[in-house]
User: What shape does this take?
Amino acid sequence: MTTPTPDNSESDEQGKAAPDSSTPAEPTPTEPTPAEPAPAEPTPAEAETPAPAQAPAEPVAADRSLGTVVRNVFTADNSAVVTFLAIVLSLAVGAVLIVLSNTGTMDKAGYFFASPGDFFSSAWQDISSAYSSLFKGAIFDPSTLSGTPAQFFGPITTTLEYATPLIFGGLGISVAFRAGMFNIGGQGQTIVGAIFTSYVAFQWTSLPGVLHLLVTVVAGLVGGMLYAGVVGWLKARRGAHEVIVTIMLNYVALFFLGSYLLSTSVFHDPAHAGQAISKPASPSAVLPHLFGSSLNTDVGLLLALAATFGVAWFFRRSKLGFEVRAVGLTPSAARTAGINVGRVQIASMMISGALMGMIGVTQTIGLANPNNNSIAPNIDAGLGFAAITVALLGRTKPWGVVWAALLFGALQAGGALMQTQAQVSIEIITVVQALIVIFVAAPRLVAEIFRLRESKVVEGPASPTPPSPDPFHTTTAGDQA
Assistant: This one.
């Protein structure tokens, strides 16, 4: 029987693996030898070559088709579209209320199924006449095309006059809101500003004309600023809640004016015995007309636009404006960053109060004053609280406040003509204003009613998905082809 010849190559390999025969134990074949490289460690070539799956995808161009552009406009992220749809929705609800408030139309609803055309015709007549009167009183009346300039531009200038104090008030509320505070004291600050304005207007008559007007405006601004500064100091130094303090100070200012100040010999006008009316302002302290004596807009509109530019610059460019925004976002983080939170709160409330005091200026020496530029207990006319709705509708942005004030001014100017011509209660306008604020404060509700997309469409259907590095899937993830 022939003995098999041993394989020299195998013996050499065994000799290399175990040169010392005295070694007590040999590694098992399943265990890797020390000379073998670790399987988890890639080679230098593999480390330098990136995996195909991790290669950055080429940027895909967004779909620029008309349909995609339109869909991207009507999204829930577009605050302008949501605000516009909130106004449309409010006017629709107002139309329903106009129909319900007309007894003649509701009588026709009693036999709706017998003759539905009568009801719909009467309802359309109510809605169209009401909103056409609203437009004619606020913007433009087509029947005045051949009339005088005062008739042609009268509605829009009246809207601008009503919007002027709302611009000041909306800006004032916005400054406090950006600082994380809710200034409910617009009524009191407006009254105090009006008191300061009125006193300088009828008492300091020895000043030259232009100087008298400037000092009168500054006096009203300072009055509102000081009254709001008390709130800021109590908030920053004593921890008092600004909402409670401002509401209480509203009552203080209201009763101080009506129950005491207007009955004193210093303020009360002897020509109106038994009436709580102050002395009239000197003609040199009255705001002049902006577009001529036949139109209803005064230079207070220019002051309001200047204040808008100033507040926009304040928030974007000034150091204090940055600190106000930082404190409004996170007071603790602002304090950690070295910002004096108390100083910022006091300053923001004083700026807010100064702007609210400008409402008192326009109400006292502006063209909207019905009492011959005197002040009465109702001098604020509810503008301190209307300014809150204007600020919310404008989303506390300076130019958003301007557009919101114009809208509310138009509703107020057109509401009077709607009441006289269409015989629709002006309270409908108040309801519409409240509904606008409600819908703007609930943007998701508006988005659900109109079925708006949540966000924009970034890639259109024409944008292909990047192909797989291995289209036939012949390798597993992480393996090299």
